[in-house]
Amino acid sequence: MPLSIVRTVADLRAQVTAWRKAGESVGLVPTMGALHAGHLSLVTLAKTKAQRVVASVFVNPTQFAPHEDFDAYPRDEAKDAGLLESAGCDLLFAPTVAEMYAPGFSTTVTVSGVSESLDGAARPGHFAGVATVVSKLLLQCGPHVAVFGEKDYQQLQVIKRLVADLDIPVEVIGAPTARADDGLALSSRNAYLTPAEREAAPSLAAALRDAVERLRDGVAVDRVENTGRAAMERAGFSRIDYFEVRDASSLTHLGPGPITGPARILAAGILGKTRLIDNMAV
Amino acid sequence: MPLSIVRTVADLRAQVTAWRKAGESVGLVPTMGALHAGHLSLVTLAKTKAQRVVASVFVNPTQFAPHEDFDAYPRDEAKDAGLLESAGCDLLFAPTVAEMYAPGFSTTVTVSGVSESLDGAARPGHFAGVATVVSKLLLQCGPHVAVFGEKDYQQLQVIKRLVADLDIPVEVIGAPTARADDGLALSSRNAYLTPAEREAAPSLAAALRDAVERLRDGVAVDRVENTGRAAMERAGFSRIDYFEVRDASSLTHLGPGPITGPARILAAGILGKTRLIDNMAV
User: Does CATH place domain A4-175 in 3.40.605.10?
Assistant: First the structure.
């Protein structure tokens, strides 16, 4: 089946309504485009959960700070559409900024708690932008399930929280992070890395893997975090935003001693001019 | 048909889903209970717009400030249920606070601009509480139309704004304010008035009617506002929150000269221990 592309909420709703009337379930995979194998694995997972899959491509301006890479963020719709079609996606929703934010737009969805530390501290306003645009996409499309990558683990928890809190009738599913053979988490921003930086980048995943093992061995949280930050420094990260062991769902601090329940290690920092993030389950 | 009462989102959704599957349209009338003829007129209007009507009764704690009348707010579910049944309402959704706000609840919907002045200034946090709970009620019920009273005119504009901005798939309808024979806008809070205050209270509506006429005669906005505030003082209001002429949809300031387009006059103040609000179209 060829991939259809729609650019308005009205056209999106017309197609989804037709599917629902025909008794077909619908999955949504929200993305910012610049698709890679990680995104395609989300589509593949969505296809196992719903009969029809919609992917959205929208580089959302409100989740970028003024100094961040909104303008430089890679965009290639033709390539994205080809990849989505090959992955079996049924519909691409690619709205303009004007379609998403009409004149007079003035509503914000904020999530306290889970969004406040880590990327919420490093990128003020980021999660309000994410929470608002994801609320819109879910309500525009009205899918049965929506799939998000665990690569943005804090984002996934923020979305699960807002969907539960606002009673948005959708099942939110997290998909495992896709990685290169050397362990580097796939990311659209990896395209910014120089060859030398690309060679150093897998050390972030290696530091996380090492931390997982040490936590399982009963090493104290504060020691594991210190070792992880040191590994990021040695790898050449010029800024370390965090390397932290957190509760797996509330993202509250754990430690300083050994962990006793489900935990997640989350790390972020700047390598060269590129901000990399990654995380792993313990 | 006897009125059914449900207390959980799951039960509400089961009933609404059954109606939708049967091809019936659904209207929602959100209320805080203590129902009077004004609320029943919303139900009557909803019945002209949808085949099934759900009323919710939920005194929402998050839209009351700590010093306000949350605990004292009148509650009489049996009486409310009887009135709703007589008005032809099909279902009463009466959730507990715990059903609406589970442990860990941390999401807020805020609307800038239209919510910031008037009651937004007089009651900090009020409209964030309203916007969040109304978002929840709309998403819990999933109605085709939702009816709100023009009595809370700023609230109606806030809700129209958030529904458009978040793409909640519902038509929001405003219903005219129901009034006593002497002009006083019906309100659950009128029950707080002493006999003497009740006698003075219609002067608020009289001042608004007078202001409408003067604006139509071309009198300048600032003169009309001053006259209105003076009338409220003479009527015994101990605090005047506002008496203002605003743009009918954005609620931005108009004046100081005569108006040139659709306007709304909004007024609020405290009479005795009771806060009264009212508004009229110009």
Answer: no
| SS3 of residue A227 by DSSP | helix
CA angle B85/B87/B89 to nearest 5° reads 60
- Written as six digits, the tokens of B121 are 């200034």
**Site of tokens 């609230």:** B155
Q: From B245, B104, B116, select the one nearest A162 (Cα to Cα).
A: B104
* CATH of segment(s) A188-276: 3.30.1300.10
Would you report the helix, strand and coil content of chain A in percent, each value rounded to 5? 45, 20, 35
Q: For residue B16, give Cα distances in angstroms to A15, A125, B52, B106, B141.
A: 23, 36, 9, 27, 7
Q: How far is A179 from chain B (nearest CA, A)?
A: 32
- Which token pair is A261? 């329940």
Asked if residue A205 belongs to a known ligand binding site, the reply is: no
Cα B163 from Cα A27, distance rounded (Å): 23
Give the list of residues 6+ apart from residue B253 with CB closer than 8 angstroms, or none.
B244, B246, B247
CA angle (B15 as vertex; B8, B26 as ends), nearest 5: 110
Q: Is A25 annotated as a binding residue?
A: no
Q: What is the ipTM of this complex?
A: 0.96
Residue B214: which H helix or E strand, with range?
helix B203-216
Q: For the domain made up of B188-274, give the CATH fold.
A: Pantoate--beta-alanine Ligase; Chain: A,domain 2 (3.30.1300)
> What residue segments make up the domains of chain B, in order of their start?
4-175, 188-274
Whole-angstrom CA distances from A72 to A125, A134, A190, A272 are: 19, 22, 13, 16
- Identity of the residue in B107, B136, B161 whose CB atom sits nearest the CB atom of A161: B107
In one letter, which amino acid is A140?
Q
Asked if A185 is an interface residue toward chain B (Cβ–Cβ < 8 A), one would say no
Q: B169 to chain A: which residues are within 8 Å by CB?
A: 13, 139, 142
Residue-by-residue pLDDT tens, chain B, 282 positions: 689 999 999 999 999 999 999 999 999 999 999 999 999 999 999 999 999 999 999 999 999 999 999 999 999 999 999 999 999 999 999 999 999 999 999 999 999 999 999 999 999 999 999 999 999 999 999 999 999 999 999 999 999 999 999 999 999 999 999 999 999 999 999 999 999 999 999 999 999 999 999 999 999 999 999 999 999 999 999 999 999 999 999 999 998 999 999 999 999 999 999 999 999 999
Q: How many angstroms separate the CA atoms of A20 and A254, rounded?
A: 44
A2: left (phi over 0), alpha (psi -120 to 50) or beta: beta
* CA–CA dist B154, A87 (Å, integer): 48
**Residues in CB range of A123: below 8 A, 6 or more apart:** A65, A68
Question: Interior CA angle at A222 toward A216 and A223, to 5°?
Answer: 70
In angstroms, the CA A25 to CA A9 distance is 18
Query: Do residues B99 and A107 lie in contact, with contact meaning Cβ atoms separated by under 8 Å?
Result: no
**What residues form DSSP beta bridges with A275?**
A270
Please identify which of the residues B39, B126, B144, B253 carries the catalytic annotation: B39
